[in-house]
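Model: Ready when you are.
Researcher: Fold this.
Model:
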Amino acid sequence: MIKTVARATRVPTMPRVPRTAVLMILAALASVPACCNSPDDAPPAPNRAEGGPSGGASGGGTPVYDYEGPPIEAAITMDGGSRVLKVDVTVPSGGWEFALDGVEPIKGATGACVVKLTLTQPGADDIVTQALETHTQRVAMPEGARSCKVTVSRVQRGVHYLVAPEHKLARIVLSQ
């Protein structure tokens, strides 16, 4: 009869890490998402007019607001004897710029124009204040214009574009 002897084999274990080292590593990992994700990194929320277009194509000729970015408000007011388009954009931090690119009449449409604006957001490494700001552009409307399409091109400072980003429809404003 043969006897079998069982041998206890020892499984190697990891060395013990001091508790303070573990807590420091966990604290460092917990702070990484907070410092790397800023509100500017988040994809912009669609800017839809209240009670306006829903963003889908419809048979009734409802316009589609394809601009995505900080909220845009626009209104036509009278300043003396001329119409002025006032466009406001509320941005989440400092470092943004809002500039007028031009005003053009719409060909084939009487009393309508297109206002082209550019919204420049801070660069990826820019240090900015974290406070809501409102930028305003006041545009004198062409003679006889009673309605206006507001289009916005959105760019980022420090980024070089081979082709400039296109202007996207942000608002359609009618004079009252």
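Researcher: Now this one.
Model:
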Amino acid sequence: MQQSHRVPRSLAGIAALAAAVAVSACGTLIKEAADGRWVPMASGGSLVLHQPVTVPRGRTRVFFVNGKMRRSGATYDTSCVLEVRRLDRAGARTIKAGGFEVERVEPYWTMFAQVGELVGPSVRLAGQDGGDGNQMIRTGYRFRLSREGTDVRSLTCLGVMDDPAFAYPPTLAEIDRTLGEVATLRQPGETR
């Protein structure tokens, strides 16, 4: 009779949990500048708003491009979006200046697909049949935020939209340029 060498489920579960904790403790790596080094960006950092930010009526997001607040993002340059949890249809609302704790940093990406005009009844996937479609992505980071008494949810910063092979997430220097004088993203222990 053969003996089974199976790992008990509880031990396998503990091993999986330990691996997940070890990986999450490392944080997400972010490049300092285009020619800079990769640095870990973990929870414990902060986003500091140097001035109040107004979320327009009927919106949940405020975009930042080239150091200025806008109503929409940009796919041609690095952009960031500050997002609140609740939609307010009654009027604009203001987020007071101050600090937000970064609870978690997540790699993030979004895909865009542009499909050419279909002639006649046919079904095709983007990119099939002679390149009638074009898939582009933007990669970046989502910083989950918290502060007592506010419904601010996250800051998401994305790089330039490009082909998947050439898309890259923004560096900390690009994020700083994008936020401009309005806000500063700080790493854990940083005081600038």
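Researcher: Key takeaway?
Model: The two ends are 68 Å apart (CA to CA).
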